[in-house]
């Protein structure tokens, strides 16, 4: 007590509990009635979890851990975790593994400090603490109001404001993103979708230049993999895939792109219209014809003059649009619930995921509550219309450009989970963890099929899928790699320097820009800290693209790699926030200070 070494842990963190006990700390345990209530996961509470922003300190519901008294009842508190509660038996097994207390010594010591405030609190959400009772020297592993960068809509909005805060362009590291709950952003998305379709048509036209028809590969229905597919087909076009397109199609795309380039080059100062060619063509007809070219194999004729114009325009657009390369040519977008993380709602059930039945005539992409990939503007808008009523929270859904030109490993999509810690917001102090891991999809990557098993790398999604028979056998069975394995793979590709010269600097810069963009909105408290998990995709050129930042990243291992890495990052976090206070020269493991104002 005199040494102020009383701690409290709430959630599945046996490593933290073990490490603190080894340091001579005494746990003030959650009373048994509180543990039972904490483990209660009725269907009603599960449904509530899906409807609440999952990060940040909204203060809704009672605190589970009142540092100065008994546990309070679980009065419908919605849990802002990034992963679902584990089955009770799993949680109990983890508790047993760390509660090696055959003689009841830890229980006795916990009883003796039952009325003491814990000096260190590690919990999986901020509402678990009573802030009025916290003293200045108490250490808590969360900050308030971090939803400004740890929810999808929060990050989207914060990064829109980045150019006003820093001399940085979010389009260089964050795929462009729009909140569909606000009409201004919905209109901006519609314009972006149309312009991207026009650029994509020029790219498709150049695939096989000359006067001969250029045809995109059409995937037969029989080739579609098992499970649901989010590739839909035009509803208004009656022409066959091989029938000729209207001759002005390429010219219209060229005109739209020329006007857009003029806007980007600030040549539109004297023009009255704020956006390029909003009404100069029949966009409904243009998009239906574009869908035929991009997704149904319709023929496309390109003259040599048009070929040269396409090449010149795309070259000039590339100088103005940092995402022109990664956006590809199929105009794929990804819809995400704006306040959820880790793929909540993306897959359900057990075993291999099967096709979701149509509900009320609405295709599966529009009834699913989770992340959806789509290539059709009308599908995005149909979903958005259901969430623009005044009673619905603004920003409920976001739509983001899918990174089409990405690096795959053995023909499989992957992403990177990268940890970092913030130990202070004034001055902003950021520590980057030098070890991370890759998460693989279960099925081979294909833009012709948009199933979740091919495109969503989250462990919480992929655990529901069996490996596809078509999957390359070199993909690890547990779908996890360490960053060291990835570096070895890059070396085999002749890109040995890409990790240290491109990927790591890019991830650091993206993290810092995201934090700076939201810095003024975070609830700052001296003595607190927070461990975050940032998710990145890797482009064909090895450039990292930030997808999201998770507060309370899962520490439950899903493989041998994550079992070691998750234990290491928890150990090193305690070194950083506890040991370093008394010994500034102590080891902090794999953490590296990358920024201090």
UniProtKB/TrEMBL annotation:
Segments for region (Disordered): 35-60, 212-240
Family matches, as InterPro entries: TTL/TTLL_fam, TTLL_monoglycylase
Ranges of Basic and acidic residues composition bias in the record: 37-50
One Gene Ontology cellular component: microtubule cytoskeleton
Nucleotide-binding as UniProt keyword: yes
Cellular localization per UniProt: Cytoplasm, Cytoskeleton, Flagellum axoneme
Keyword DNA damage recorded: no
Gene Ontology BP annotations: cilium assembly; cilium movement
GO molecular function: ATP binding; protein-glycine ligase activity, initiating
Alphabetic keyword roster: ATP-binding, Cell projection, Cilium, Cytoplasm, Cytoskeleton, Flagellum, Ligase, Nucleotide-binding
Main subcellular location: cytoplasm
PROSITE patterns with a match to the protein in the record: TTL
Catalysis performed (reactions): L-glutamyl-[protein] + glycine + ATP = glycyl-L-glutamyl-[protein] + ADP + phosphate + H(+)
Stated name of the protein: TTLL3 monoglycylase
């Amino acid at each position: 007590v005199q040494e102020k070494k009383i701690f409290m842990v709430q959630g599945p963190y046996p490593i933290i509990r073990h490490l603190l006990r080894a340091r001579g700390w005494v746990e003030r345990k959650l009373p048994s009635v509180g543990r039972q209530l904490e483990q209660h996961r009725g269907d009603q509470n599960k449904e509530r979890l899906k409807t609440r922003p999952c990060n940040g300190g909204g203060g809704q519901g009672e605190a589970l851990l009142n540092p100065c008294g008994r546990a309070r009842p679980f009065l419908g508190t919605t849990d802002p975790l990034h992963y679902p509660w584990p089955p009770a038996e799993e949680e109990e097994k983890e508790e047993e593994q760390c509660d090696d207390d055959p003689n009841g010594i830890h229980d006795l010591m916990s009883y003796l400090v039952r009325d003491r405030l814990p000096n260190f609190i590690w919990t999986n959400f901020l509402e678990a603490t009573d802030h009025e009772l916290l003293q200045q020297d108490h250490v808590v592993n969360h900050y308030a109001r971090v939803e400004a960068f740890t929810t999808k809509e929060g990050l989207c909005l914060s990064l829109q404001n980045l150019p006003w805060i820093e001399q940085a362009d979010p389009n260089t590291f964050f795929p462009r993103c729009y909140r569909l709950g606000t009409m201004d952003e919905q209109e901006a998305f519609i314009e972006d979708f149309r312009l991207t379709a026009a650029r994509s048509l020029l790219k498709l036209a150049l695939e096989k230049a000359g006067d001969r028809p250029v045809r995109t590969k059409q995937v037969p229905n029989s080739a579609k993999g098992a499970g649901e597919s989010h590739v839909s087909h035009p509803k208004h076009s009656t022409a066959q895939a091989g029938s000729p397109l209207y001759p002005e199609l390429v010219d219209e795309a060229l005109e739209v792109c020329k006007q857009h380039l003029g806007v980007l080059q600030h040549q539109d100062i004297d023009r009255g219209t704020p956006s390029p060619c909003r009404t100069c063509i029949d966009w409904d007809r243009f998009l239906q014809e574009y869908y035929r070219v991009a997704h149904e194999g319709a023929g496309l004729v390109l003259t040599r003059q048009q070929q040269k114009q396409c090449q010149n325009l795309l070259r000039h657009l590339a100088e103005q649009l940092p995402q022109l390369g990664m956006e590809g040519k199929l105009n794929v977008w990804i819809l995400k619930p704006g306040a959820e993380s880790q793929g909540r709602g993306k897959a359900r059930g057990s075993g291999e995921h099967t096709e979701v039945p149509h509900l009320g005539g609405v295709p599966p992409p529009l009834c699913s509550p989770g992340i959806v990939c789509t290539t059709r503007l009308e599908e995005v808008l149909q979903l958005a219309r259901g969430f623009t009523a005044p009673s619905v929270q603004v920003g409920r859904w976001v739509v983001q450009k899918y990174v089409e030109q990405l690096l795959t490993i053995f023909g499989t999509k992957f992403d990177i989970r990268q940890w970092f810690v913030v130990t202070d917001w004034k001055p902003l102090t950021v520590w980057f963890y030098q070890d991370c891991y890759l998460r693989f999809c279960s099925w081979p990557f294909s833009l012709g099929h948009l199933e979740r098993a091919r495109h969503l790398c989250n462990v919480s999604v992929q655990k529901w899928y069996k490996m596809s028979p078509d999957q390359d056998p070199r993909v690890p069975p547990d779908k996890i790699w360490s960053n060291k394995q990835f570096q070895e793979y890059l070396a085999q590709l002749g890109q040995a320097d890409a990790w240290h010269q491109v990927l790591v600097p890019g991830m650091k810069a993206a993290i810092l820009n995201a934090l700076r963009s939201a810095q003024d909105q975070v609830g700052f408290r001296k003595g607190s800290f927070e461990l975050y998990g940032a998710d990145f995709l890797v482009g064909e050129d090895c450039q990292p693209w930030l997808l999201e930042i998770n507060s309370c990243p899962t520490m439950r291992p899903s493989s041998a790699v994550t079992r070691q890495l998750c234990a290491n990052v928890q150990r090193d976090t305690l070194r950083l926030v506890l040991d370093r206070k008394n010994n500034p020269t102590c080891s902090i493991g794999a953490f590296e200070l990358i920024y201090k104002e």
